[in-house]
Automatic annotation (TrEMBL):
UniProt GO molecular function: double-stranded DNA binding; recombinase activator activity
Family that this chain belongs to: Belongs to the HOP2 family.
Sections of the chain in a coiled coil: 93-150
Keywords (A to Z) from UniProt: Coiled coil, DNA recombination, Meiosis, Nucleus
Domain Homologous-pairing protein 2 winged helix: 14-75
Name of the protein this chain belongs to: Homologous-pairing protein 2 winged helix domain-containing protein
Biological process annotations from GO: homologous chromosome pairing at meiosis; meiotic joint molecule formation; meiotic strand invasion involved in reciprocal meiotic recombination
Cell location: Nucleus
Amino acid sequence: MPPKRKVVQVKGDEAEDIIEQYLKTQFKPFAINDIVQNLHNKVSKSVTLKALDSLVASEKIMSRTFGKVIIYSCKDIELAEPIDDGDYSLEKLRQLQDEVMELDRDNSNIIDVINDTIKLPPNDELIESVTTLQNKIEDDKIKLKDLQANDDLKENSEVKEILELEAITEKKIIRRKKILKELMNIIKDQIRPKNLLEYLEDIGCEGMETCF
């Protein structure tokens, strides 16, 4: 077994430089025994103690006493640039608070629209209803043309009934188209499908876009 190499111990300024660089590199506190051990006895304990006292006196490092133990560490490193607290200023926080409140209002509006939509008939029933009303209007128009050939048009009660029914039907169609348009806007704004027609087909609402 080869003999162990004898560790060459350093002293004086060289010892101070080694210890100071070690503390700066580790950037955490050590007791004297830890420093000697971590430097692998490159600096003896007595030399380490003198070097530490010298470094503390020259304010290159700092020390704190805890009972009978003295802890040594490098001095706090100053930041090269001051911390910019602009993102944490009171003005910035108020701005963020306003944005949050605005988002809450938008969210409330969306919830109101969704709740109103839930109360309505299903999409397939709305589409079927609109289609039925449109067909009825076409039938009524045909009947109206036939009746317009009659000289007694103003006195014909059936014509009046058809005209009233047509007006009511038109209002219902407009209302249902408005509802469908709101549903389409919700889908576009909240779900944002890549292909709207394919999405409507996937959820069983194909043909919905033809109601506008």
